[in-house]
Amino acid sequence: MAWLKDQQPEAQRVRLLLDSGERRECRLVMNIVNLGEVFYLSVKAKDLAFGNRILKNLRARMTIVPADNELVMFAATLKARHTIAYADAFAAATAMRHEAPLVTGDPELKTMAERETTLTLEWIAA
After folding, report:
1. Superfamily assignment of 2-123 in CATH?
2. Each residue of 36-76: pLDDT tens digit?
């Protein structure tokens, strides 16, 4: 979200990660629920054309994974155990499933990561 809102310095860090993903220097993963969140926020901020450009941009730079039954229930379990947004639970569940760091600056996720030892964060907040 910092990237979309151009919140610095977080947006620059995300931009660098997205560029690395596009060059296939790293594998970036996002689930379809979080992609949907980015899309609707993009459309709300500007318009449908902007939302579609953001989708195309992200799909070129990362792997989009489905929200299968197991991921939904894993995210729901995380949401039940922690004070986090439901979409954040999907981001965390996806990161944990793929044994990848979750790129975030969200303090609620930082608190969660202190209790969930299998969740690794790449902290981008200033």
Report:
1. 5'-nuclease (3.40.50.1010)
2. 999 999 999 999 999 999 999 999 999 999 999 999 999 99
| Phi and psi angles of residue 123, each rounded to the nearest 5 degrees, phi first | -80, 125
Residue 125's pLDDT is 86
| Residue 32 C-beta-side C-alpha neighbours within 13 Å | 7
Torsion over CA: 62, 67, 73, 78 (sign): positive
- Sorting pLDDT into bands at 50, 70 and 90, what band is 35? very high
The answer to whether residues 100 and 124 touch, using CB atoms and an 8 Å cutoff, is no
The pTM score is 0.91
Burial class of residue 87 (count of CB atoms within 10 Å of its CB; 0-12, 13-18, 19+): middle
Buried b (16+ CB within 10 A) or exposed e, 39-66: beebbeeeeeeebeebbeebeebbeebe
Q: Where are the domains of the chain?
A: 2-123
